[in-house]
Design a protein that fits this description.
Elements lengths: L1 H24 L6 H18 L3 H11 L7 H13 L3 H12 L6 H17 L3 H14 L3 H17 L3 H8 L7 H20 L3 H14 L4 H13 L3 H14 L4 H14 L3 H14 L3 H15 L1 H14 L3 H13 L3 H20 L3 E3 L5 E2 L15 E3 L7
Antiparallel strand pairs: 1-2, 1-3
Helix pairs in contact: 1-2, 1-4, 2-3, 4-5, 4-6, 5-6, 6-7, 6-8, 7-8, 8-9, 9-10, 10-11, 11-12, 12-13, 13-14, 14-15, 15-16, 16-17, 17-18, 18-19
Main location: membrane
Protein name: Lipopolysaccharide assembly protein B
Organism: Cobetia crustatorum
Length: 392
């Protein structure tokens, strides 16, 4: 990061030097000014080469008068301050630019965007929101309008203003898949509030809107299934849960417990067995294998369950699978074997407990519980159960 910052400073210094050089060559430039500015420039460059970026930036800012030729450089210097965490200085530079009547509309829109980013970085969301709303009303540049809309959506999401975010994002949902996925989760957030307030009809409507916005929104079917289960509509709950692996097979492990509960409420164990057999053939996750092995154990005995689990582990090794197989072996073990199996069991348990259960497929963030928005990269629906050798 420091190397990138120094590179940015160097590029800014080159830009300043280029502008000063052009200014020196202008016939209408007053003689004393170039000498003074050039001296300031070389002083700033000296600070930069001596790894004194603070003093270098201050010198460059003082050296450059604000005009149409230097706007880009001032913006770059302000952004450097923001990247260094010195947001107050970035705000000062960008506000100073915005107050200049010489800016054309394109430059003014760029400065507004950067100033909004400054305010967001410092947590002053209300001022950022006002800037961005004004920009969206008056922006003539399509790129600036698009960037401003994305920034405003990000701000409203941070403030958990789901309705407002949906309103701002409405016009670009079809073009941008990332926004569409996020919008589906905003509908789910609103539905969760409706459920808390007892407005189930409105919650159902919102969750259907989520699926209409993004047909692969696992969370919407998950929440609908919970509503149906709570109202004893077990068959409908099962149908909704069974849609989830078709939306995203990576979420298969999370449906097994509620699915099993719904089948048991219907006293339909054979239906659950059929479903689990289908899932094992399609995607043999450890959780699915263990769920099916437990049913086999209850119906056909320990030996049959151990045989099934062992076959599946041979095809798809898993730490949790080994741990479950040890449980089965302990049921038929003699005293000496019990001691050995318990030793192995302690090791597998320690390894399992030390491992996270979920991981963001976007940034790698790990968590013990399922969360719908990654707190690190802030993408929606990317945190999934960890599968494979050490996962579900």
């Amino acid at each position: 990061m420091p190397d990138l910052m120094m590179l940015g400073m160097l590029m800014a210094a080159i830009a300043i030097g280029f502008w000063l050089g052009r200014r020196d060559r202008r016939p209408d430039t007053q003689p004393p000014a170039p000498t003074s500015l050039s001296r300031d420039y070389f002083v700033g460059l000296n600070h930069l080469l001596n790894e004194q970026p603070d003093r270098a930036i201050e010198t460059f800012v003082q050296a450059l008068e604000v005009n149409s030729d230097t706007v880009d450089t001032h913006i770059a210097l302000g952004n450097l301050y923001r990247s260094r965490g010195e947001v107050d200085r970035a705000v000062k530079i960008h506000q100073n630019l915005l107050a200049r009547p010489a800016l054309d509309s394109e430059q003014g829109e760029r400065v507004q965007l950067e100033l909004a980013r400054d305010f967001m970085r410092s947590g002053v969301y209300d001022r950022a929101e006002k800037l961005l709303e004004a920009l969206l009303k008056q922006a003539q540049n399509d790129c600036h309008r698009r960037d401003g809309r994305r920034l405003l959506i990000d701000l409203l999401e941070r403030e958990r203003e789901w309705e407002a975010a949906l309103e701002v994002a409405h016009s670009i949902l079809r073009q941008e898949g990332g926004i569409r996925r996020a919008a589906a989760h905003w509908h789910c957030e609103l539905a969760a509030l409706d459920i808390t307030e007892g407005s189930l009809a409105l919650a159902r409507k919102r969750l259907k809107q989520a699926l209409s916005t993004d047909e692969k929104c696992v969370r919407a079917n998950w929440m609908l299934a919970e509503i149906e289960f709570d109202h004893a509509n077990y068959k409908q709950s099962i149908r909704l849960l069974q849609r989830i692996p078709r939306q995203d097979t990576g979420f298969t492990p999370i449906i097994l417990e509620p699915l099993g509960n719904a089948f048991r409420m219907l006293d339909d164990e054979s239906g659950l067995v059929r479903h689990l057999h289908q899932e094992v053939e399609r995607a043999p996750y450890t959780t699915t294998v263990i769920s099916l092995a437990q049913l086999i154990e209850r119906r056909d005995g320990v030996e049959a369950a151990a045989s099934f689990a062992s076959q599946q582990l041979h095809r798809h090794p898993s730490l949790r699978g080994v741990d479950y197989l040890l449980d089965l072996y302990l049921l038929d073990a003699d005293e000496r074997e019990t001691e050995r199996f318990n030793l192995l069991k302690r090791h597998t348990q320690q390894l399992i407990e030390a491992r996270p259960r979920h991981r963001c497929h976007r940034c790698g963030f790990e968590a013990s519980l399922l969360i719908w928005q990654c707190p690190k990269c802030r993408h929606w629906g990317t945190v999934k159960p960890i599968t494979g050798l050490e996962g579900e």
